[in-house]
Each structure stands twice: as C-alpha cells, then as structure tokens.
Fold this protein.
Amino acid sequence: MINTYLFLAAAVCYAVGGLGYIAYLWRLSAPLRNLGLGGVLLGLFLQLLALGWRFSEVGYLPIASFHEAMSFFLWCVLAAFALLQIRYPLAILGSFLSPLALVFLLLAVSASKQPSAAHIPGGPLFALHVVVSFLGEGAFAIACAGAVMYLMQEHYLKRKDFGALYNRLPSLTTVERLNTACLWMGFLFLTAGVGMGFVIAHREWAGAWHWDPKLVFSLAVWLLLALALAARRLQGWSGRRSAWLMVVTFTAVMFTLLGVNFLSDKHRFG
Amino acid sequence: MDPSLLLVGLSHRATSIELRERLYFDERRARSLLREAKQAWPNSTEFALLSTCNRTEIYTATLRPDAAAEEILSRLSIEARGHAGDVREQAYVRTDPEALSHLFRVTASLDSMVPGETQISGQVRDAYRWAAEERTVGPYLHRVFQKALHVAKRIRRETQIGRQVVSLSHAAVELARKVEEDLSARTILVIGTGEMGELAARQIGKFRPARLLVTSRSLDRAAQLAREVAGEPRDIHTLNRLLEEADVVIASAAVPEPLVTTDLVRSGLQARRGRPLVLIDLGMPRNIEPDVHRLEEVFVYNLDDLERVTREGLASRREEAVKGGEIIREAVEDFVAHLRALDLDRLIVAFRRKMEALGEAEIRRVAGSANGLDPAHAEMMKALAHGIVQKFLHQPVSRLKANARASSSNAVQDADDPKAESLLPEALVELFDLKDV
C-alpha cells in the first residue's frame, strides 16, 4: 500500500516537473527550469523508494503488471535524462521530453495492475536484463526528443524563420552531440539487454532461439541501430538523416516494448 | 513628513543632440555640480546626477518638490547657454511614484534607444557611486538606487531582453552559432577584405576559432587582414579546398559574379562527411549563389536575412520590454509599500510609544489592584516604569541606527545583493507587531 502512495507522490512530482519544463519553453526563467528538474529528481527519489518497498514485498524486480512495467520504464527514461543533464545541461531538452514522459506517466497510472500470467524468472540476471534494456530504451526516448529538436531547428534555419522557438532551441551541433551520446548509450545498453535476454531464453525455454515476436523485433531493432551507427561512421550520415533515423528507431523500440507485448504470450508485461 | 523622490531630466526622446551635448556631465563636472548643489539647492536633502549621451537626469529627495524642481531647472538653464527656453520646454519633472518608475525603467534599459543594452545600468551605478562618494545621497536615495539596480538585474534574468541580436555583424556570428555553437574548435574562412567582412571577422575572432583563414583576390590584402585578425592568408585559387575545410564562411568580396557556386560547394560535400557548413554572404552583388542553401547541411544567409534577424531582434526586445514594464510596476508598488513600512524614524517613535504605553498600562493595573496608590508612590512607580522602558529601548534603538548607517555606507558595493539590505527594521515590525505604523 505504501508503495502505491509513494508512486502517486512521485507521479505528482513528475507532472509538476513536466509542466514546469513545458512552461519553461514559453518563458525561459530559472525558477521554471528549477521546478522542472526539482520535480523530476524528487519524483525519481520517491519512485525509487516505492520500487524498493515493492521489491522487499515480492522478492523480485516489480515489473509483473503492465502498470509496474510502465512505471519502471518511466523511471529509467527520467533517470537517463537526469544523468545526461550532468554532461549536457540542456534544460530545453526537458521541455521536449516532458510531453513524452507525461504520456508514459498517464499510461503507467491508467494501466492494469493485474500481474502477468506469464512466468517471471527470478535471479539477478533477469533483473539486470530488464534494467539495462529499459535504460537503453530510455536513452532512445531522449535521443528522439533531441532529434525532434534538431529537425525543428534545422527547419527554422533552412526556412530562415527566426522566431521565438528558433531563439530558444540550441545549436544543431549541440543537439547532434547529445543524440550521438544517447545513440551509443542506448546501443550499448540494448546490446547488453538483448545478450542477457538470449541467455535467459536459453535457460527458461530450453534453447537459445524461439520465434517469439519480442525476440524477433528486438533483434531487428538492434540490427537497425547497428546499421545506423555504421552509416554514421562509414558514410558520414549525420544531421537531418540521422535525426529522422532516430525518430524511426525510437518508434520501432516503442513498438517492440509495447505493441509486440500483446503478440507474445510468454514475453509480456501484464 | 517623508521626502518625495523628484526627477528633473531631458532625454533623447524630446531633446536635440545639441542641447544634450551642452547638458552632458562627465565625471569631473558631475562631481563638481553635486558639491555645488549642497549649498545651491536648499530644497533638496539628497541628490544624484545621471548623465549619458542620451539623457541628463537629476534625482533628489525633497520635502518641497516644486521649489526643488525650480532650483534644478534654473541651474540646467545656465548650463544650456542660450537654450534656457528649450530646457524649460523639453525637460520632464516627475515625483514619486512616477519618478521611481522612470528610474527603474532607465536602469533596466527599457527607455534606451535599443532596449536591453547593458551600458546604462553601469552608468546608473556610476552616477550612484559618484553621489555616494560626494555624500549627496542619504538613506532615501540609497534605497532607491539599490532597488533600481536590483530590479534591472531581475528583468535581465527573467526576460529575453538582452538576448536578441541587433547589429549585422553580431547577427552573422549568432546565425553561425545556431549551427555550430562552439566556434573555438572550428575553421572560419573569410573571403574578401570588405569593410563588413572585416567587421564580422573581428567579431568572430573573439570566439578564438581553431583556424581563421583569409582569402582575397589580392593575396597582399588577405595577408594584411590576416595579420590584423590573427588569421592565416590563403590563395583564392584554392577556394574549393578551402570550402571543404571551412565550417563557417564569411564572404564580402567586391565581385560581379558569385564566387561560391552550387557546384563548387556540392563537389566538396563528400569530403565534409555530413559536417554542416554556414555561409554568410555580406557582398553586394552577392558572393554566393542562393541555391547553395538548398544543399543538405549547408546554410546560406545574405544581407537581407541578417537585417531581418536584427529587425526581429529589436522587435523582440521591445516585446520583452513590455514584460519588463510589468515587473517594474510590481516593483514600484512593493517598493513604495516597503519604504512606508521601513521608515526608520517613524518606526522608532512607534516602538517607543508602544513600550511606554505598555509601562503605563502596567502601572494602572498595579494601582487598580492595590486600591489606589498615594501620589508619592504613584510618582515613584511611574519613574520606575519609565526608567525600565528607556533602558530596554536604548540598546535596540542604538543598534537600529548604527545598522542603518552601516548599510548606507556599504550600499554602493552591495547594490546587487538584496541580502545586503538590513533586515533589522523588518524584524522589529514583525516582532512587535508594528505593521500599522
């Protein structure tokens, strides 16, 4: 019960922080920026307590229901954002990530709390598989927000539209650097997540390869990412093309996480 | 009775440059006027003089605003030599809160020709410092000027007023920085040695780019400008190679046909491997084919674009000035209320009265419970209560006065720090419930 209250308190903090960041886009003021970051950090702390509480009750990483899985995913996205703020202190990124985070928050709050009928493997390897996969996907969410910022700024620069948003958005290369960092961070985490996933599948389902939809899509997304990174390195694919690729990748990642969830009977939340 | 803030001034809004020149006071003249005013302006108790190329304004604390304004106008008319009539016609005379609001607007540069310029708050600070050093400001103007500087800082922080570009060379640099923010790691290529190009090269040179290459049809002129801006001269015949290396190009050559063509830039794109290229065309006729802008990761801006940036920057600053005006309205209201509440003399009197009333009430209570006191005892009790109240008051009142003196003398240095203002009067109001003073 306490973890429910803690999560609700965290949700309020996220909502306030998200709205603070969105308002920051309209009026660049330090109090709004601080409200945004403060809401996110306090929410992260409260949700961590909620997760810890739930963990101590059930004895495994609480992702059994769709609500728990979405909540944990939200935590990973915002934790990745908070970590990135240390290296790339771009408050405006919060304004672009907030709508996405608020959608995840609504999904988490309204999602079913019925635990999954599927067997949830125990052990630290499974917990690590979920954590690194979600962190990787969180990094893609941020890269997607960054890609949207890039595409908008590029549009303004090409159209020679020097309005209010043009002034608020950072330079193209700043966003490009952020996206590259997120792409690599996401790729490394996802590689580790997929690798661990195969080990777990081998252990749980007797044999490494199954035509499980989530496995297939995960591998497809991983290949897409590997191609994107290769294109950047070898072909100098960057800028606009890279930003579009990031949006496509994130859509595929979300489809793998959420859409395919309902196609797989044993590899699903809720 | 409290003093009023009086402003007498002339500014670029209504006064010709000739008259403004005559009424311009540099530091030496300003200090001399302030010293003279101590005797010559008996109707003002405190005064400060702000003089810039756009305005000359005198702020005073006075109990008789009309008489004080007359003294100041007469003095300014003498300075105007032959334009005395103009001074009286064009000068504005305001008293608080309009005078307060005007000073706040001026300090925050909302009244400047280019709103958001930063010079004016420094000039207000100088005016305040000179007056403080000449000992012509007292507790009243100290508070007023500190608040003005504080409000200006707040407006700069809370609005976008100083962020939009308003000059062409600045616009060129800011456009380049919207593509590549960190110019220190980049290569800048300057084509041509025209005046605009030179100006932009100097502006961009401030960001200490990794390499600043200068090319021109005359290698000698390129070498000369390169020396001046700490760059490297390059032969214009290697332009295709230079375009591959450059991240930002500033072109201002006097040429009949564009030097930078779409084909020339396209041929170098492969070697750039997706690195963005910004080309700023300051030439007339244009140095860069407009279609170059259509190439991927290539951005071309010409003089019209830069003018639009500066025009929008100015318009945007004016919009921000409206937001700043709202902040000033709030600040003036707060400040007037603050001044009223913190008027130290009145506060001390009220404090004293409250304590004495408490002493008297206590004597009446004791006298009542003892069924009346004989006159000798009553007198003794009264003296005792009065003595205790006076002893009790002595230390806090001395501390309050000393603190007010200390915060006035530190006021210029600490003008930006709101914490530097004494909190003791406020504490007294709170502790002894003196809000109705």
